[in-house]
Amino acid sequence: xxxxxxxxxxxxxxxxxxxxxxxxxxxxxxxxxxxxxxxxxxxxxxxxxxxxxxxxxxxxxxxxxxxxxxxxxxxxxxxxxxxxxxxxxxxxxxxxxxxxxxxxxxxxxxxxxxxxxxxxxx
Length: 122
Hints:
This protein has helices at about 35-40, 50-60, 75-80, 95-105; strands at about 5-10, 15. By secondary structure, the protein is mainly alpha-helical. The chain has one domain. Helix 3 packs parallel to helix 4.
């Protein structure tokens, strides 16, 4: 039985198997039955994925951003593009991240501590 390549663990995080790129054994594609899903996906973590797969996963589910340890500026911008309210979870958003969020919803200025002067234009 072939199942979808997106699974939800008991913690509610969506983990995507992108052709085995996020697994500990890259380039391995397995078809799992419903009994093997938890066992196979228990070791997966968004932090173990490549940058490309993190970006793809954020497009599908921006809430995964909250699970990424030390996200770089590119991941922050992608997450804010998909859901501008994520800016409230970024401790020190860069000028570019602030501008991207404010382009989509200027009222988010209240969620940004010490907004950059260029971001205030939006």
